[in-house]
Structures are given as C-alpha cells and as structure tokens.
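Progress against Task 2.4 (sequence-to-structure conversion) is shown through the following example record, which the project officer requested during the mid-term review.
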Amino acid sequence: MLCIQKCDMHLFQTEEQKQPVVYQVETGLFFELDTLFQAILECCEGVSDSQVIQMLADQYEAEEIIEAIEELTQVGLISDGALPVVPNVPTTEGVAACGVSQTDRLQVSLHVSHTCNIQCAYCFAHGGDYGGKAMLMQPKVAEQAIRWIVTEAQVFGRCQIDFFGGEPLLNFPLLCKLVPFAKSLGARLGVQVGFGIVTNGTLLTDEMKRFLVDEKFQIKVSIDGGRKTQDRIRKFHNGSGTYDVVAKNVKKLTDEVPERIHLQAIMTAYDMDEDRIADALRSLGTDNALIGPAVVSPDAPYAIREEHIPELKQQIYKRSRRALKAILNGEDSEEFDPRIQKLLTRQKSCHGCLGGKQYLAVAADGSIYFCSSLADAPEFKMGDVFAGIDREKQQHFDAQFNVHNRPECKTCWARNLCGGGCLWDARTTTGDPMYPNPVACEQTRYRYELAMEMCMEIAEADASLLQRRYDLEVAS
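Structure tokens generated for the chain above:
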C-alpha cells in the first residue's frame, strides 16, 4: 500500500475564524477544516491510510476516517502516490498560462526630466538624476520615444504614457508638444493613447492645470500626509517645507476633477499611522489615496523593518474589517477586492508585476528600462528608443525572475498569489533582486490570509454575493 503524502499547503487560523483554514498552493483551493480533517493532516505524512485509522481510532470511527481521507484526496490536500513535479523554468506557453499578461495595453513611464526642484529623504531616483547627469529630455529623443511607444502598442491597440521624473513639470513645454504628437500618431496607427503624470505638485500653475485637465490626464501627486509629515520628508532645496504649496495646488485640481486625482504617500517609520495619513490626504478633496512603505535600506532611520511588522499587521487587520463592511454594503475596497478576486478565480502569477513586458520606462536619454524604479541600474537597461528592445534580454528577465526560480519564493505558500513581489523593493532592501524584502513578504501573506477569511464571512452573510461581485463564471 502506498504511503500518504501531504500536498503543498498552508494551514492557518485568523482572528475571526473558529476553525483553521487550509490553502492548497497548486490548486488555489481554500476552506475551513473540521477537527477530523485537521487530525488527519497532522499525522498522515509518510504513513498508510490503515496506520492513520489506527492512530485516530480512539477518537473517530474507521468509516469516518476513510471518508475524510477520500475527501482530502479529492480536493488535492493529500495524495497516495508521487506528487507532480513543477518545472523550475517554464516554457513560453507556461509563462503565458500563469498570468503575466493581465492588461490589454502597454504602459510606459516617460522620463521627461532627470532633475527635481525638491529633495525627498527616501528618493529612489537619487534626487531626480538617477545617479547620473541631471538633464531634461530633448525634443528629438522625446519624439522618437513617442514613435517607439505607439508603434510598440499596436499589438494591444492602447497605450498609457505617464510623464515621469525627477519632476516632469520642469519640462512642461515639452509635454505640450508631445501630447498632440502622440494623439496624432496614435490616430494614424490605430492606437488609443492615454496620458498620466506623476508630480510632486509644487510647480503647478493655472496654465499647467488647464492643460492636464483638458487633456484628461490621470494626475498622481506625491504628498506624504499632513504638514508635519510632508515637511519632514519632502523639502525644497533651501530646507523649507513643501506642504502648503502642494496642498494649495492639489485643491485646485480636486475642485475640478477629483476622480482623476490620485494622491500617493510614502509611509516611513516616522509615522506609521496609516489611518491618519489617509485622512490627511482625503481632506484635500479626493478619496483616491494610495499609501505604500518607503523602499530603502533597512539601515535608514526611517526604514520600516521587521520590528514594525506587529504594528503593521494591526493596521492591516483593522482595514480588512472596514473593507468587509464596505463590500457587504456594495462599496469598493481597493486594497482587498483584487486579492479576493484573485483567490476566487484561482489566478496564478509567475511574476510580481508586468515590469519588463507591458510596463516599461524610458529614461531622459532614451534608454529603455525594466521599470522606472530600476532606471538607475545599468543591468536592467533593455535597449533604447532608436534600436528598440533587446528581446533576448527581455526573455532572460522573464525566466530569471519567474517566481519558481527565486530561492526564497519557490517554497513560499503565497508564491502563486504575489508572483515574487517587486524586484526594486528586493534589490533595495536585500541587495539582490532575486531575494524579496521579508517585511513586504510578511504583509503580503497576511493580507491574503485575511482575504480568505473575508471570503468565508461574505459567503456566510450572503451566499450569492461572491458570485455576483467577482464574476466567478470562470471558476469551477
């Protein structure tokens, strides 16, 4: 008789669940376990079903145990034979099947400026110049970048061009030329072109505001919270604070198009009260507030480190409770809706993002990079707008950073959910893009545990809500 083997799974118990929950890594199934199922999983590894029956005979009837073993086998939690081996390096078809293409457009950050008019303590762009020469993108390079982007986007029929920096509004006259040029080229090539900008908000004039609003830009303004937090982290070069200027300019925008204004805050160890930060952002006139941790060396005084994880988890848990109420009331949850959707449809991710594929960055000199955050790293350069992308390097990145090839990731139970996380975060915090940031990993795993808990509570409150809300026709 063959021995029973446990499949790759994660067993946990959340704050609200009376019974433990099990997540089967390869199938993506998750459900609560009763005490018999839990007892079998605790003792079955490497033994036969008859031995399991003997070990549990004083607690359960043999027939009960046999039925439970059969059910656990049917749902893939245990096996009576050799378990399937997942290859480390997927084929091209395997990569496509595991969800690297999740959007129908090409998105490019166009660095029209490699210089900045303020200084931020945690700036990944080294003050705006990405560790090189401070410069503005020149018209000849910019026009060729637009040609390359729109031509590359023909396969999708859509592209999003996000003007980036440094501070992109330092090169505002160039934006005024590039937008009509990109729209005209897109019309000729059958590509719908959308625009966005990521700005620190200090330079916004009425002329700039009118242009961004009229051209239907998605406008992302970096502001780290209230006056005290903002002025401590983001300063003008003379040392004065930036809050009053940014807040005034943001209100001008939110008075007109609040739905297109997205405020982005970087949370540091100086202030980890995410609710307070979010309230400060929303007070400026928009509910679109995104808050992320500072990605810096753990040695930095404002870095969020492992010692902060308990506090972070408390905040994440509180947000999950609010998100559950919102979902039950038919409202959105930007933090948990995507995770619930992914769990219920059992999507798998081989990579942490679409960087190097459908999300790229073009530096001020025309070089093409894996993403904006890695535009200071020569090893992540993938070509330039004159010669195009190095396809061999693109394929190399795709295989190299597949979650099944990253040492810490390939044994993690959440690997198919997060795809390995952000390479820039990994490179910055651990010194190697192959090894993820453990603080980020712990939060990611916890969010998915809470998302599973929320699924069960939603199903208990309204059995059909999950089906209606998350369009589960593709799930079996």
